Structure to design on (459 residues):
């Protein structure tokens, strides 16, 4: 069983104060990088015992976060580069025109965007799906009057929420959780199905009802289409038509290759990103001929400038929260082998009086707490182990507890609540990740409440 004893140190106390301070700053709608740097410095100072260690820790945290985010940064940059090229050629309008009859208005667009994202995410995982779905469907949804923030919510809640938390196709999440809980993944998927269904349905409908008024762009959704206003009245070139056909075809081939070679996660993201780069180069050569060399350079610059602009503050914030997880060893030193957030979660479980209902509450809280590092998956071994421990101690359903921990960990950390976990969606939709997190907070909170009540009944 999971050992629920843990020794808390001054580093643990300082980190908890830092988390509360940062979250409070976010609630006040203020930027947090300076707060994060201060607490990283204090943690480094206390853990090393000297000023040099404190100063070095600030850079080590930023460096670690940069490495962790680099895959996402590059993906966003390359997809943005392709998007700019398609816009200049007019190919993006041609691609989206075929979907215009289906996506009739902002509300219909929201559901189509979300459901498409969920389907792709179930088979490919959300990271590559954001690039695939977002690059093609988001501009059309915005053109139909859907606000960028509402589009981001659809991608986020359907993909990083419903699809990733259940993971019924790839089964990466339930496999990790089940292994730690000492049960089979199918036990989580079968016994936990009512919880997955409740969390998903309640969250999605809550988001739709609460945010209906802010889903409609009064300006007509021109954010993504500024350079294309005159495209419908101009006969498209043969080059633009060719690229409009080539681009979705290339990504369809990617999907086939993912199935054939069983590419998942980072491998799938790499395939999508590489395809975006190659298609952008081909489009530039075909569309701009002798100017293509300069055009490709410009598009790559624009893409990376956009990605870095979005990620710069998030790298600082991520540096602090990675100390709460596996990044602590690289940032503060080899003497730390366990993430601070995990230690706090174990401590909380060890001091709380246990009964069935309290166990359900603790499991949900601990799952969310471990998700604060922005991963979602890093806390799954812990919630699985605790499900086994709690289920044995109070004689309740281990699969239900494991499912509950998995849902809360991934909904919080997988990319619907913590801003540093939902950057890919925010970048694709060109919205503030903090604002997106605020919009998600209430519907996800309602989903948690209903799921908690159902778990208490089923336990």
């Amino acid at each position: 069983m999971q050992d629920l004893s843990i020794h808390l140190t001054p580093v643990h106390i300082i980190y908890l104060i830092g988390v509360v301070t940062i979250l409070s700053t976010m609630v006040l709608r203020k930027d947090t990088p300076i707060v994060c740097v201060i607490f990283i410095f204090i943690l480094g100072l206390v853990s090393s015992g000297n000023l040099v260690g404190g100063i070095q820790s600030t850079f080590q945290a930023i460096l670690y976060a940069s490495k962790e985010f680099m895959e996402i940064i590059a993906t966003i940059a390359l997809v943005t580069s392709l998007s700019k090229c398609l816009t200049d050629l007019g190919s993006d309008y041609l691609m989206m025109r075929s979907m215009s009859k289906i996506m009739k208005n902002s509300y219909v667009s929201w559901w189509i965007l979300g459901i498409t994202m969920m389907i792709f995410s179930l088979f490919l995982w959300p990271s590559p799906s954001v690039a695939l779905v977002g690059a093609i469907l988001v501009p059309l949804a915005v053109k139909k009057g859907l606000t960028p923030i509402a589009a981001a919510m659809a991608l986020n809640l359907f993909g990083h929420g419903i699809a990733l938390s259940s993971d019924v196709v790839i089964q990466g999440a339930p496999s990790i959780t089940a292994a730690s809980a000492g049960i089979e993944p199918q036990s989580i998927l079968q016994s936990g199905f009512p919880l997955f269904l409740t969390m998903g349905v309640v969250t999605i409908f809550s988001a739709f009802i609460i945010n209906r008024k802010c889903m409609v762009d009064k300006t007509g959704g021109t954010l993504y289409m500024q350079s294309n206003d005159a495209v419908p009245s101009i006969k498209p070139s043969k080059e633009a038509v060719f690229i409009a056909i080539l681009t979705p075809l290339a990504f369809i081939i990617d999907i086939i290759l993912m199935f054939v070679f069983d590419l998942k996660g980072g491998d799938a993201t790499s395939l999508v990103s590489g395809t975006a780069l190659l298609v952008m180069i081909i489009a530039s050569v075909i569309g701009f001929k002798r100017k293509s060399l300069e055009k490709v350079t410009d598009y790559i610059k624009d893409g990376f400038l956009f990605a870095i602009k979005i990620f710069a503050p998030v790298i600082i914030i991520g540096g602090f929260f990675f100390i709460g997880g596996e990044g602590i060893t690289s940032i503060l030193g080899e003497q730390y082998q366990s993430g601070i957030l995990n230690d706090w979660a174990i401590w909380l479980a060890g001091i709380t009086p246990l009964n069935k209902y309290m166990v359900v509450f603790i499991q949900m809280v601990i799952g969310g707490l471990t998700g604060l590092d922005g991963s979602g998956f890093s806390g799954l071994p812990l919630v699985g182990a605790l499900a086994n421990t709690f289920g044995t101690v109070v004689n309740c359903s281990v699969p239900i507890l494991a499912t509950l921990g998995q849902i809360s960990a991934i909904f919080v950390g997988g990319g619907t609540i913590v801003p540093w976990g939902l950057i890919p969606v925010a970048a694709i939709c060109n919205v503030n990740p903090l604002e997106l997190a605020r919009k998600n907070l209430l519907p996800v909170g309602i989903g948690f409440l209903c799921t908690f009540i159902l778990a208490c009944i089923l336990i």
